[in-house]
Amino acid sequence: MKNVVWASLLATSAAMIAGCHGGEPAATSGAAQTMQARVVESQEQQVPVSLRSTGTVHARETAVVSAQMMGRIQQVLVREGDNVRAGQTLVVLDDAALRAQVEQAQAGVKAALNMQAAAQTNAALSASTLDRYKQLESEKSVSPQEMDEVSRRAEAAAANLEAVRAQTDAARAQESGARTMMSYTRLIAPFAGVVTARMADPGTMAAPGVPLLQVDQAGALQLQASVDESAIAAIHKGMKVQVGINGGSSTSVGGTNLAGTVAEIVPAADPSSHSFLVKIDLPSSSQARAGMYGTAEFANGARQAILIPRSAVVSRGSLSCAYVLDGQGIAQLHYLTLGAPLGNLVEVLSGISTGDKLVDEPSDRNLTGKRIEVRP
User: Fold this and answer.
1) Is this model's pTM higher than 0.70 or not?
2) pLDDT tens digits for 230-251?
3) Which residues of 9-48 are buried (b: 16+ CB within 10 A; e: fewer)?
């Protein structure tokens, strides 16, 4: 009885081994069933090697708007998301005290001008008197003492005019300074763009250097990515880069690559991460926004790889497979380890060899053990 059981187990095991080549049972009949299918061949080709780096999208220029003087905020005229033009007033500070200083400076200029007019009249009169006395001196009609007195008065009048002119210039400079300080009460947009942050409201006390608003420049954006120091030698200014936005791959929003250009490589590495900041100019895109996550792929030479059409790959659960023909044209299921897709092709890391013939578009048919007749 034991011999019968062992013989049965051995027969069953042999049948299982014979039917499990490639992962699915093979046909047990002597003549393999023939089916028609298109056949493709795996090829060894050079594929590009790339360096991948992640980063964040930024405007090419960003300005943090802050006050240049102490003052209470009277008005904040914009909010986040508002588009602004260059020179547009964004924030207004209380200017009552500065307005009084401007008026006082204007009064000082007016007084100085009046003094200058009087000094100029006196200097002109002294000069004409001196000319008349010089004529009389030539006629021996004035004494030397009188001539000296007239000359000294003319010199004093001229010196007084110069002093008053200097006072006028000082008054004008004071007025200009007061007007400049007055201009600091109106904070303007440095360029056309969009307000991306508002950090203050009316009634807040503004101070020099304290951020009130942030404005991103309108127009094209940049991806700022960190590249490890070991790979930075492969990157250069003007290099074309494939960029994906908000997806973590080289495919952009909407499934189309964005073709970026390396605009700047910061020459000093970050000492904590040992990486360099690379700034990549991006083309205009209606879906790209500052602050989005992005991935850049930098070309770094090429390598040999085995490629097959993606249409030859079938799925068995979570596994990728392909039907490979042996020397007699019999299909066997091979499990594959796939690499990156390249258009209509996909790289195969293991499971087949160069020159293998595969069934194209097998769909859900079970072709294991079937003889494949090539269909044109």
Assistant:
1) no
2) 888 889 999 999 888 865 444 4
3) eeeeeeeeeeeeebebebeeeeebeeeebbbbebeeeebe
